[in-house]
Design goal:
- With about 150 residues, the protein is mainly alpha-helical.
- The chain contains seven helices and two strands, in the order ααααβαααβ.
- The chain has one domain.
- The protein has a two-stranded antiparallel ribbon with strand order 1-2.
Length: about 150
Amino acid sequence: MENEILDSPDRYGFSPEYAGFWLRAAAYLIDAIIMTVVGLVIYGTIGGDFLEPNVFSRILVALISVGYFVYYESSEKQATFGKQAIGIVVTDIHGGRISVGQAVGRYFSKILSAMILLIGFFMAGFTDKKQALHDMIAGTLVVKRQV
């Protein structure tokens, strides 16, 4: 029972509805806007120039971005602000909360998803459980929030 993947209505009392490519893309767009505003504020205050921020401000923005996704996806909410707005959450394959390690792995696996001509992201539109490559690597699912 412990190795059962989230798909049994008997165990969870519902059949999960997996979030596909377009829902996930909309959530990411919201998160990208948030991170862009944060970046612009940091670049404008300590980066010196909006078009060519210094190395320190670039590193700070990168760390904030990693922290944002890792913290919120592994938190009790299981979702960034974008995912919360769209009504989706990140779970492990059993429907539970993901660990910080899984969230870190998921974040950095997105680099691989992007490097292969974004095919890793588009996979979410074609796999049975609507998993992108980074979800498969991290052992995660993105499902619609149950109300």
